[in-house]
Amino acid sequence: MRVLFIIVTFLFSSFATYAQDTAQCFSNFPAEVFNVEEKPPIKLDSDTENFKTVIEESYKTSSVNFGGHYLIVSWGCGISCQSHALVNFKTGQVKAIPFVTSLGLSFQANSDLLILNPDLDHDKQEQKHLKGETEYYIVENDSLVQLSKSKVPKSCF
Fold it and tell me: Which residue of 62, 104, 126, 139 could cross-link 67, Cys pair, CB 3.0 to 4.6 Å?
């Protein structure tokens, strides 16, 4: 009887953990992908004007890759360092994403979910020197709102 109780307890705790993990998945934060017929001119802000060339070139040659109507543009800022900008395809407005990453970003065109430093694991010898944490954000009104800081759920991929 005790063994059955342990098994049932394990199954329920596993289900609860799985439900928490899936809450962070891309499909739980859907975004309708905007059909870009004509791109508006980009509007850089003071935080992005120094990166005009990389942003403009990406904007010219790319389509929506995040949150239904955004383009995320990334560039290197040193060893294990990436900076990013968010371009709104509806307005042309460009905003710097206000943090740098060590392991980049994970995102999808049809989801509002943005994962910083996916798969970051400070227990791995080759990642001990990296700064930051895995963080989850969603986009709302051209701003990123933090959901949580935790390890990337395996059920998301």
Answer: 139
